[in-house]
Specification:
With about 425 residues, this protein is α+β, with helices and mostly antiparallel strands. Helix content is about 45%, strand content about 10%. The protein has one domain: Creatine Kinase, Chain A, domain 2. Strands 1, 2, 3, 4, 5, 12 and 13 form a 7-stranded antiparallel beta sheet that branches. The protein has a two-stranded antiparallel ribbon with strand order 6-7. The chain has a two-stranded parallel sheet with strand order 8-11.
């Protein structure tokens, strides 16, 4: 089997439960100590993110569904649900996680801030994880762009993972998600401050990712993928062309490798060492806003939402991407857009301006409302098809808030300007 075909076969690997699409959600949080400093990452004399991670894992010992916990490079705690059929089941898991986390925050006099961009500290003021993989990422990203350290230490997000049912399913979801990305980015923008100052009209987290490493980040559109036609094949080309960040030995030790991921995978293949695990490691070194993993499509574009609205991005994506009739409706819309329309939408996502004119003469907020209505329709149809409770209650409160108050990154700045408190006190009060 050719190398490209082997990679594609991993992406399209059979589901654990045949024909039953599962959804997974990953959520990140900034954690601070009682002095409002970002918590230390590595074990030491002070309670650290590493200690918090262990405690979170221990507290779910008796849970039927055990989440996966990990630490991001700047000590952000990431919770990942188990794959579930219904988003309401994911919400139950999230509630259990938040109870555990809040218990530990109280016990150890810690705080969290539900923003997507670190509001106060610079990257060099934040502890960095003692892990070879992330050290190699840091070494590479300081060469490939301006904001790699900011992305690694100063951002949080929510990622949505959707099972792939077929090649057509994968390619349609990826194309549609790439078209929808700028609207999702703006809708869920939640990074109002950076380095102790208001962000003004800059959409920082999105800009950080777009200027980290152009060989492996950005929109699929940026990589010349403008339709669903042969999309998976072209995505595999992105994987093979990207420089390797790290490789693993037969003993699973991480090491540096000078060359492309293609060169590494070909070397493994030559010595009959190429397997599914190694291919999945290569796939995890691609950070496009939408990407593929083993039998999973992942959307990575939404900021970490405000507390209470964590599941809104998941409902938005599931409503738009998992129902065939809804996808057909979206494909008709995007088929009328020119490449310039796509460029305009992507450019508008970089700024916090919902009134900016987007594709087809409509402003960005008009398109957001159109896609939100379609998402709600999709969630209703999904509930009927799967015989599950309608998941729109996880999304409609958020879009209602947006229509009442605006984008969080914008109205949080307005609230700050109307407040007399220093930023750290303002954030604590919020």
């Amino acid at each position: 089997m050719k190398l490209k075909e082997e990679i594609e076969s991993v992406i399209l690997a059979p589901l654990e439960v045949e024909g039953d699409r599962m959804i997974g959600v990953e959520l990140e949080d900034f954690i601070y100590d009682k002095k409002s400093k970002r918590i230390r990452v590595n074990p030491g004399s002070e309670y650290s993110a590493s200690d918090l991670l262990k405690n979170l894992i221990d507290l779910q010992e008796n849970d039927k569904y055990k989440a996966y916990y990990s630490i991001e490079p700047g000590g952000q705690i990431e919770w990942a649900s188990t794959p579930r059929r219904s988003l309401h089941d994911v919400q139950i898991e999230l509630n259990n996680h938040q109870k555990r986390l809040n218990h530990l925050l109280t016990t150890y006099q810690l705080e969290k801030i539900d923003l997507a961009v670190e509001p106060i500290y610079l990257p060099n003021e934040i502890d960095f994880i003692d892990h070879k993989k992330y050290k190699l990422m840091h070494e590479l990203f300081i060469q490939t762009g301006k904001y790699g350290p900011w992305m690694m230490r100063n951002t949080t997000s929510i990622q949505v993972n959707i099972d792939i049912l077929s090649k057509t399913d994968a390619e349609e979801m990826a194309f549609l998600a790439d078209c929808l990305t700028p609207f999702c980015v703006l809708l869920f923008s939640n990074g109002p401050f950076m380095a102790g100052k208001p962000a003004n009209n800059s959409n920082h987290r999105y800009n950080f990712w777009n200027d980290t490493d152009p060989s492996r980040c950005g929109n699929l559109f940026d990589h010349g993928i403008h339709s669903e036609d042969q999309l998976l094949d072209k995505f595999v080309d992105i994987v093979l062309d990207a420089p390797s960040i790290f490789t693993v030995t037969s003993g699973n030790n991480i090491q540096k490798f000078d060359g492309s991921l293609k060169k590494w995978l070909q070397a493994l293949d030559q010595y009959d060492l190429l397997d599914e695990h190694k291919i999945n490691i290569a796939l995890h070194q691609i950070f496009t806003h939408v990407r593929f993993k083993k039998h999973v499509f992942e959307v990575r574009v939404a900021d970490r939402p405000p507390t209470g609205f964590e599941m809104a991005p998941a409902a938005f994506w599931v409503g738009l991407l998992t129902v065939d009739t809804i996808r057909d409706q979206l494909i008709k819309i995007f088929s009328r857009w020119s490449l310039d329309d796509r460029k305009i939408a992507n450019a508008n996502a970089c700024i916090l301006s919902p009134s900016s004119i987007g594709p087809a003469g409509k402003n960005m907020m008009e398109w957001i409302n159109i896609f939100s209505v379609i998402a709600i329709d999709g969630l209703k149809l999904r509930s009927e098809i799967l015989d599950i409770d309608n998941e729109q209650d996880l999304f409609t409160p958020y879009i209602n808030m947006i229509n009442e108050r605006g984008i969080p990154a914008i109205f949080m700045q307005e609230d700050f300007y109307n407040d007399s408190k220093p930023l750290i006190d303002f954030l604590r009060a919020k």
